[in-house]
Amino acid sequence: xxxxxxxxxxxxxxxxxxxxxxxxxxxxxxxxxxxxxxxxxxxxxxxxxxxxxxxxxxxxxxxxxxxxxxxxxxxxxxxxxxxxxxxxxxxxxxxxxxxxxxxxxxxxxxxxxxxxxxxxxxxxxxxxxxxxxxxxxxxxxxxxxxxxxxxxxxxxxxxxxxxxxxxxxxxxxxxxxxxxxxxxxxxxxxxxxxxxxxxxxxxxxxxxxxxxxxxxxxxxxxxxxxxxxxxxxxxxxxxxxxxxxxxxxxxxxxxxxxxxxxxxxxxxxxxxxxxxxxxxxxxxxxxxxxxxxxxxxxxxxxxxxxxxxxxxxxxxxxxxxxxxxxxxx
Length: 329
What we know:
The chain is an alpha/beta fold. It is 37% helix and 27% strand. It folds into two domains: 25-50 and 207-291, no CATH class; 55-205 and 293-327, Vaccinia Virus protein VP39 (Rossmann fold, 3-Layer(aba) Sandwich). It contains eleven helices and 13 strands. Helix 2 (43-53) runs antiparallel to helix 10.
């Protein structure tokens, strides 16, 4: 069984034009302009990010691929029921999870895979790829487009099955402290006592490595795509030629922060907001942040938000960790 569904929340679909417009208005009226990185992840943005994850310099992806390949047996051992749900939050193209799916099928495990993502294109393509790659197998896939927690609520209504939830990559690293705590609280409330969460953390390392990881030309294309999306969906008139991207490590926040810099004095009109926004020459607009943490900070985050750490899975250089958590009792 291979299918895709678009989740509906109480307010309608997950990313409405109104939500997009409100987020942009709020971010561009701040003294230091700042827009959240999720705005970049429409179908085209997700495609660009997929190319970024294939760069050798982009360590989070390279390290996590190594972890999944080397620890797939350890992950399979978490399963102690006859049938289970494999749920992936922010699945993208599912490239890392496909390693696990192959292994689970080889081990004759009976499971249903639920990739959840805000990009309908990414979900549709992933389900189609799995259908092409695994015909005549026991694999069941239901792709869900929309909000993670709407998806979890749908899946976990049947509490007879064990759930293994994957939150791979650095999405949790990209959240500020309050957002991460709120996210983990909602996640904890969505899970039962026999469920596991496998979540990724990029660990603190040489700032020179961090700089090279976030300044490839593809990162500039990715960040500038945000302007394309605002032009297309909100009727803005951003000119990408008048902005440049730069990623830098900020020691006071312990985050790699990406900025779009206006190369000149310019005014941008956004039709959907019926509003002009002024950019001074070399004014910065933040578009991404990726916090880097120590193992102790990550363990504290787990405990303070109602989880217990079961085990850590590292790459060979200990640049990254996929940590296995369960709900604390």
